[in-house]
Design brief:
Order of helices and strands: EEHEEHHEEEEEHEHHEHEEEHEEEHH
Strand order of the largest sheet: 1-2-14-12-13-11-10-15-16-9-6-5
Helix content: 10-25%
CATH superfamily: Vaccinia Virus protein VP39
Shape: globular
InterPro entries: DNA_methylase_N6_adenine_CS, MT-A70-like
Number of domains: 1
Protein name: Methyltransferase-like protein 4
Number of strands: 17
Strand content: 15-25%
Largest sheet: 12 strands, mixed
Pfam families: MT-A70 (PF05063)
CATH class: Alpha Beta
CATH topology: Rossmann fold
Family: Belongs to the MT-A70-like family.
Radius of gyration: 22 Å
CATH architecture: 3-Layer(aba) Sandwich
GO molecular function, one term: nucleic acid binding
């Protein structure tokens, strides 16, 4: 199950299961409307984090290969070792923040891991003999394509369609304009389709826009107000500059995101923040107030191995085994936009933990759909900004929004029950809402989700 357990400290997630949940029913769509049914699962080796990186010889990367700076080379480096007294102000602030939350992370993680082990989860082996399959190595050129698309003239808003279907009636996807129009999969099925010469798996009831920061207007004009907005900004830091994995964005530019145009009253806004104190302070003291968002809680994503150990030492000066999420509520300034009442809100508890085995793919975060459901409702409209993957029922935007949807990250297996599947699909499509992605999941699914404080 995707949510292994929930208690007063937080929850334990099975991140791979959360992904697979959206692909229980999957159709491969070919030209001329030829369809076939496939089983679709995200590749398991992406979550085979078997060892804690207590030394430099760990065999599996955690957090997308960022272990490279921990690994020793054959030739000793000649870098001058700094004395402890030479910590700069940022490092001093980081240490102070760590000391403030250390006991919460340590005690909460122990409680959650112990409970998970009693259920048969996080009991994985950490032996060195385990064979690890290679990670998918698909080169993404999506950001480069977005750069090229910026050279095209902007379409007049009055002439531009706000949304388009993923698959045309003839089964074609070649007509889809991914860069200047929101694309919707309006069916109850995941679809394997060919886009820009590559094969991608698109979850059901999903909408997405592939563009960079300068071409976000189609999303703002999409006509949707969202009850949950999650964002994972490309924060500036030295590691990103050295690796050149992706372009970073100056913090002040984030203020230009049109959150007031996208958020419904009392929308829950969640931002992933690096462990750099200046970024956390910026979100709390500048970014959220600029948008009219009140901070309500700070949560922590704790990364553990398959045997429940921290992926990095808790007190490591180089890299911590946790990341911070800042949660806030959007409060419209205009009286005409107040809409729902604050009294009807479900309070968000502070300092809760999300414990999971991280992906070995860089910057792939666990889905928060099930974790946040108690605070927004099962039928909430949800948006992810700076997304690198899609989620069922969500709208997503980013210049690599399809990155982890490429079929190289999935295992696709043809099945023999195609005829019945296609018959069921036809019946499902007749009952689809053709204009709007649905909520997080069906009411039947949400009814079995534990309340935030249930043990």
């Amino acid at each position: 199950m995707s949510v292994v357990l929930v208690n007063t400290q937080g929850c334990v997630l099975d991140a791979r299961s959360l992904i697979d949940k959206g692909y229980l029913q999957c159709i491969r769509v070919r030209e001329n409307n030829q369809l076939s049914h496939v089983n679709c699962r995200f590749k398991g080796q992406c979550f085979q984090i078997l060892k804690s990186h207590l030394n430099a010889k760990a065999t599996v990367a955690a957090d997308g290969g960022n272990i490279d700076q921990l690994q020793k080379t054959d030739k000793p480096t000649k870098k001058r070792k700094r004395k402890h007294s030479e910590l700069n102000q940022g490092e001093i602030d980081s240490q102070a923040f760590h000391e403030k939350i250390r006991s919460v992370v340590l005690e909460g993680t122990k409680s959650l891991v112990d409970s998970a082990r009693s259920l048969g989860y996080l009991n994985g082996t950490s032996t060195s003999d385990t064979v690890i399959e290679p990670l998918p190595s698909q080169e993404s050129n999506l950001a480069a394509l977005c750069e090229m698309a910026k050279e095209l003239p902007l379409v007049d808003d009055e002439q531009q369609e706000c949304a388009q279907p993923l698959v045309a009636e003839d089964g074609s996807t070649s007509h889809v304009d991914l860069f200047s129009c929101v694309t919707e999969n309006r069916t109850n099925w995941a679809n394997v389709v060919t886009l820009m010469g590559g094969d991608y798996v698109i979850p059901p009831h999903t909408a997405f826009l592939l563009s960079d920061f300068t071409r976000i207007q189609p999303l703002a004009h999409y006509g949707r107000r969202f009850d949950l907005i999650v964002m994972d900004p490309p924060w500036e830091n030295k590691s990103v500059k050295r690796s050149r994995r992706y372009s970073s964005l100056p913090s002040t530019q984030l203020k230009r995101l049109p959150i007031p145009l996208l958020a419904s009253p009392n929308c829950l806004v969640v931002t992933w923040v690096t462990n750099r104190p200046s970024h956390l302070q910026f979100v709390r003291d500048e970014l959220y107030p600029h948008w009219g968002v009140d901070v309500v809680a700070e949560w922590f994503w704790v990364k553990v191995t398959t045997s429940g150990e921290f992926v990095f030492p808790l007190d490591s000066h180089h890299k911590k085994p946790y990341e911070v999420l800042v949660l806030g509520r959007y409060r419209p300034s205009s009286d005409s936009d107040t809409g729902s009442s604050e009294a009807s809100e479900v309070p968000v508890e502070d300092q809760r933990l999300i414990v999971s085995v991280p992906s070995a793919l860089h910057s792939q975060k666990p889905s928060l759909s099930e974790v946040l459901k108690p605070y927004i409702g099962a039928e909430a409209k949800c948006l992810e900004l700076f997304a690198r993957s899609l989620q069922p029922g969500w709208t997503s935007w980013g210049n690599e929004v399809l990155k982890f949807q490429h079929t190289s990250y999935f295992t696709l297996t043809a099945t023999d029950d195609g005829a019945q599947v296609l018959e069921d699909k036809a019946a499902d499509d007749c009952t689809d809402n053709p204009t709007e992605p649905q909520g997080l999941s069906s009411p039947a699914e949400s009814a079995h989700f534990p309340t935030p404080v249930e043990k």
